[in-house]
């Protein structure tokens, strides 16, 4: 078994080289409000403590047993277990749950379970629900209890029919749990989009779901909440999708309960290995993931590992970059442009992308519901662009296409090389109705 690398994301190490650790041994503590406890995912010996990671050499034998967290209040156990948002954001779940959703006389409070599997091509959240929804539901019930909520609403895309049927059966006797079906549109999993679709409340970009008397919690995160409380289990495992240009085809390989700190390369090998030449390896989803290397470790909020086909060569063509709040950002778009051998000469921002505070990531004013982009396309044309690269949502990509081709601008989407790899339709024209969203009562 290869070395495990535990990244110190906003954490302070509490172990040193030579220390023996077990599964569940706490090895780092939060270094601020947005940090969370970090636990070893293996039995082994700490080889080195670096500035950004702890390297552990695993023992030959790896017992199933783990060091349990202490019994305490449910909220305290979630904190001690180091549970974070596993949908990608990585915010400490204990802080999200530390709220009374019915304070100040509010009649209702909502736990909105995000089971949308927002990023295209990923499958681990849906597969977990299909195979065993009980732990997800138990975690959601704990979240309801902790936050004093009155109702649980599970948001899931209508296209996932098997998972929908499994959930319908699982909640048929639960009066406080409902399903809300979503359209297959990106980014239906953005938390303000989940609030809008489930509750009909449009939140401003600077508002949290708590403004709608709600919290939004990822489905896998729910399962880790249940493990922390019922099994006194630290959060040191991750479900992950591996997909792309792999030996055996481009279908999704789902690995459940992978030790955090396992390398990207090890998981690619488990999925069959890379098939020939490739463009890049992405850690995360097609929209928000970033290029990585084979020796990089997965973390508690890693969503996927994607191996792409080679990039096309644009031979130095002039390119404009349209920056959107729905993707990994300007730097990532420029990186992909460079990998296509394009020369970026113009940059514009989606008209709905706003900066809530200086230096903060961009936020979309109405995620998934976007107006036209004629003004930006006119800028690109004026600046002499031949191509543009966009990272926009389904609806906004559609509006780009309403005018860009008529201006002679050729469009690439940030996700094109990954969508082509997995056989997914490219993000260009919106062909799915935005009106699919609906609630199901039982």
TrEMBL record:
<keyword id="KW-0408">Iron</keyword>
<feature type="domain" description="RnfC Barrel sandwich hybrid">
    <location>
        <begin position="10"/>
        <end position="53"/>
    </location>
</feature>
<keyword id="KW-0249">Electron transport</keyword>
<keyword id="KW-0411">Iron-sulfur</keyword>
<dbReference type="InterPro" id="IPR026902">
    <property type="entry name" value="RnfC_N"/>
</dbReference>
<dbReference type="Pfam" id="PF13375">
    <property type="entry name" value="RnfC_N"/>
</dbReference>
<dbReference type="InterPro" id="IPR011538">
    <property type="entry name" value="Nuo51_FMN-bd"/>
</dbReference>
<feature type="domain" description="NADH-ubiquinone oxidoreductase 51kDa subunit FMN-binding">
    <location>
        <begin position="78"/>
        <end position="226"/>
    </location>
</feature>
<dbReference type="GO" id="GO:0009055">
    <property type="term" value="F:electron transfer activity"/>
</dbReference>
<keyword id="KW-0813">Transport</keyword>
<protein>
    <submittedName>
        <fullName>Proline reductase-associated electron transfer protein PrdC</fullName>
    </submittedName>
</protein>
<dbReference type="GO" id="GO:0046872">
    <property type="term" value="F:metal ion binding"/>
</dbReference>
<dbReference type="Pfam" id="PF01512">
    <property type="entry name" value="Complex1_51K"/>
</dbReference>
<dbReference type="InterPro" id="IPR037225">
    <property type="entry name" value="Nuo51_FMN-bd_sf"/>
</dbReference>
<keyword id="KW-0677">Repeat</keyword>
<keyword id="KW-0004">4Fe-4S</keyword>
<keyword id="KW-0479">Metal-binding</keyword>
<dbReference type="InterPro" id="IPR010208">
    <property type="entry name" value="Ion_transpt_RnfC/RsxC"/>
</dbReference>
<dbReference type="InterPro" id="IPR031001">
    <property type="entry name" value="PR_assoc_PrdC"/>
</dbReference>
<dbReference type="GO" id="GO:0051539">
    <property type="term" value="F:4 iron, 4 sulfur cluster binding"/>
</dbReference>
<dbReference type="GO" id="GO:0016020">
    <property type="term" value="C:membrane"/>
</dbReference>
